Amino acid sequence: MTSAADQPTPPIRTDVLIVGAGPVGLFAAFEAGVLGLTCEIVDGLDKVGGQCIELYPDKPIYDIPAIPSCTARELVERLMAQCKPFNVPIHLEQRVESVEQRADGRWTVRTERGLAFDVAAILLAAGNGAFVPQKLALAEAVPLESRHVHYSVPRLADFADKHVVVAGGGDSALDWVLALRKVARHVTLVHRRNGFSAADSSVELMRRAVEAGEMDFVIGAIAGLTVEDDALKAITLRGLDGETQLEAEHLVALYGLVADLGPIAQWGLSIHGGRIDVDTSNYESSRPGIFAAGDIANYPNKQKLILSGFHEASLALRKAYSYAYPEKKRMHVHSSYDAKLAEKLGAVG
User: Fold this and answer.
1) 196 has binding-site annotation
2) Has 51 been labeled as part of a binding site?
3) What is the mean pLDDT of the chain?
4) Which part of the chain is the FAD/NAD(P)-binding domain (predicted)?
5) Is 96 annotated as a binding residue?
6) Which of 171, 251, 293, 343 could join 198 via S-S bond, C-beta 3.0 to 4.6 A?
7) Is position 119 annotated in a ligand binding site?
8) Do the annotations mark residue 230 as ligand-binding?
9) 255 in a known ligand binding site
10) Domains 12-131+258-345 and 135-255 share a fold
């Protein structure tokens, strides 16, 4: 895993640049290695895992083939282990800014921090683009971010034996408040109304937990924070009956995320609803040589599933091979019978 300094560097030459280090991007790196393609990954976040790690790292996932259940964190760890034999460089905190196709058909790709790539093809596996959490409009919240004010839940264990307030009314807020009630000393859900945009089953479970005294639910809007010794002590709520205060050591504000394709929207691609239109025979965009897989890809009957992204990336890379090696005709070989691949992956038997 690498991180480039904030200065221009000579272009890094590779076959494919994968934009996005989430599950689809990581599996794409493995598939590229299987096909004999070199690749590098860039991601605007400061860690691998993409939306999975940002939004629900410890939530169980049940629809990954042959894995009955695993958390998002475990899935990312397994994918990292799977692509490790190919030593794929991962450049974090590198948001792709511009692409330029040269006369020889290859692409020059540059990031906002000065990193440059010389590639035959580009695979966009950036989820729904860059996600920005909707933050509290309170000046006192800024210096507390990541310590006492959070816009995601890094690890449940970090909140053990603490007074925690979760703000929000969507699936993420309900899921996390239900999980936190099992580890926190006390947890309170705060929402501006008694209605929720979360799954009915989660709402019902939350209401039962309140009745059982496992947690509290308060209707109101966060109006202020009480800070002492650079730490959060309480939260001021504004409701129909005026203002009240809640004791709190941590505030988890889950008001949703704003998706933004960022500079990708200016690349001249066919885009609808914030997603990139692709040809489902190879998941190529309207610009030959640029592919999209995962949530960022748009086509009829699109299913936003991780396993769909795996399939999309696999077919995209097979077409990308023809751009990297136009003089070669790649013959399909099942991985079970590929002796060189087995040796590379350290297979036994």
Assistant:
1) no
2) yes
3) 90
4) 15-300
5) yes
6) 171
7) no
8) no
9) no
10) yes
